[in-house]
Design a protein that fits this description.
This protein is of the alpha/beta class and about 325 residues long. It folds into three domains: about 45 residues, no CATH class; about 130 residues, Rossmann fold (3-Layer(aba) Sandwich); about 120 residues, no CATH class. About 45% of the residues lie in helices and about 10% in strands. It has a six-stranded parallel β-sheet with strand order 2-7-6-3-5-4. Strands 1-8 form a two-stranded antiparallel sheet. Helix 14 links the parallel strand 6 and strand 7. The radius of gyration is 24 Å and the shape is globular. It starts with 8 loop residues before the first helix and ends with a strand.
Length: about 325
């Protein structure tokens, strides 16, 4: 059983029963147990795991850092510091003002490296806000469950005419820049001249209001993307809604919500679901690897989230912080 640190206590009890019948080995890292399953606690390594399973020797060769042994050695030392609940001292940090964060991410040449910008797990909107400012240099990702995607799909399909149009516009504004002014201008239009692009936008709006087909919603998304060349605040959310609409139109799904859920679920089996330049949180990047990791404001991370963030990179680690030290233990 792999990734055992993410087992909840009920799953653990099931594995223990199976372990009495079949040979069983578990693999996991308690320092990466960062998921929250609500009222059901995750397995406790000392009290639950060691009381049933006999421990094998710990792995000591850091294969992720075989090309950068000094980085691997440094991260191993940090783990020992975390286990002892001591202070971590950061060296050569970058100042974490909004200006410095923007300047570093915007103007640094990362070459061909895969880069993760890792933000505090508590602020789910910050990665999207940061991506908006960086002009498509970085993209954000969404949870595989993507509650917002399913909620928006249900609203778009459930409403009709002007109410549907408003939901589509709200969704587009959540995902794209550069469209708000024209959308507001056209939807409140009473008199005066519209530009050629605004007139075309008005035609798309009228089609959504006048016809019930979701093809008109799909056509509007394509138009906005093509004509406005926007910056994506939430690229993956936008892409998956667009693909879900297409799948619904050509397929045999019972609802748009079902179609977008299918689109998201397919990503579980795709290796390239994470962009080369990604801004996200530890809960969405855990278990993944990059060349460079950039940790923004680690003073906001708890111990396990900090460890997950620091160990994503195989080559280079950059700390952007307001503090020279970290000691955010419970």
């Amino acid at each position: 059983m792999d990734e055992y640190q993410d087992c909840d206590i009920n799953q653990h009890q099931l594995i223990c029963k199976l372990g009495n019948i079949l040979p069983c080995r578990i693999v996991g890292d308690p320092w990466q147990g960062i998921f929250d399953f609500g009222s059901v606690p995750i397995v406790d390594w000392e009290n639950d795991v060691h009381s049933f399973f006999d421990p094998l020797p710990e792995l000591t060769i850091p294969y992720r850092w075989k090309e950068k042994p000094e980085l691997g050695k440094g991260l191993k030392n940090i783990r020992q510091i975390l286990e002892k609940k001591q202070k971590i001292y950061f060296q050569n940090i970058i100042e974490a003002s909004d200006k410095e964060i923007f300047k570093f991410l915007k103007y640094t040449n990362f070459g061909r490296d895969k880069v993760f910008v890792i933000c505090s797990p508590e602020n789910e909107n910050y990665p999207h806000s940061l991506a908006e400012k960086l002009g498509n240099k970085f993209r954000t990702i969404e949870p595989l469950t993507s509650k917002k995607l399913c909620d928006d799909a249900r609203k778009i399909e459930g409403f009709c005419e002007i109410d549907r149009l408003k939901e589509v516009i709200n969704f587009a504004k959540d995902c794209l820049t550069e469209i708000t002014r024209d959308c507001n201008r056209v939807i409140t239009y009473k008199r005066g001249n519209l530009s050629e692009r605004q007139s075309a936008l008005k035609t798309h709006f009228q089609r959504i209001c006048g016809h019930d087909k979701l093809q008109n919603v799909y056509d509007l998304l394509i138009f906005l993307e093509k004509e406005y060349n926007p910056t994506y605040k939430r690229y993956q959310l936008w892409h998956d809604m667009k693909k879900g609409l297409h799948e619904f139109i050509i397929g045999s799904y019972n609802s748009l919500e079902e179609a977008v859920w299918h689109v998201r679920n397919q990503l579980r089996f795709k290796k390239k679901r994470i962009p080369m330049r990604c801004i996200s949180r530890t809960v969405l990047l855990k278990g993944l690897e990059c060349d460079q990791a950039i940790i923004i404001k680690p003073e906001l991370f708890n111990a396990k989230n900090l460890y997950v963030a620091l160990t994503r990179a195989s080559s280079k680690l950059t700390i952007i912080s307001n503090a020279q030290t970290w000691s955010n233990y419970p």
